[in-house]
Amino acid sequence: MKTIMLVCTAGVSTSMLVSNMQKAAEEKGVEADIFAVSPNEADGYLSTKEIDVLLLGPQVKFLKDQLQEKVASKNIPVEIIDMRDFEHMDGEAILDTALGLVK
Question: Would the CA dihedral through 67, 77, 87, 37 be positive or negative?
């Protein structure tokens, strides 16, 4: 089971993206817990949940350095979602990126 946390300005587009990623995971036979949180909720989830990879929506890419510092001791990869993949709500491509980051 892989746990993928997206940090976005949690709105309709993020909900659709999570849904598309979950569908892609099912089609690939990958067990994944994929969810999105707002920047304000990120700290709480990082301290209470085992996260395998942290993806940032393009609109919150400025948080990358700050979040990398917070998770450095936990060895959680942090990456910004590709703008084109985000715009196209390409759940499969974003899932593939996330899975590629997990060691």
Answer: negative
Q: DSSP 3-state assignment of 43?
A: helix
The CATH number that applies at residue 71 is 3.40.50.2300
Q: Which residues are catalytic?
A: 8
Total domain count for the chain?
Answer: 1
> Could you read off the pLDDT of 45-81 as tens digits, one per residue?
999 999 999 999 999 999 999 999 999 999 999 999 9
Instruction: Determine which helix (DSSP H) or strand (DSSP E) holds 2, and give its type and residue range.
Output: strand 2-7
Q: Calculate the CA 52 to chain-centre distance.
A: 9
Show the domain range for 96.
2-101
Instruction: Give the global pTM.
Output: 0.93
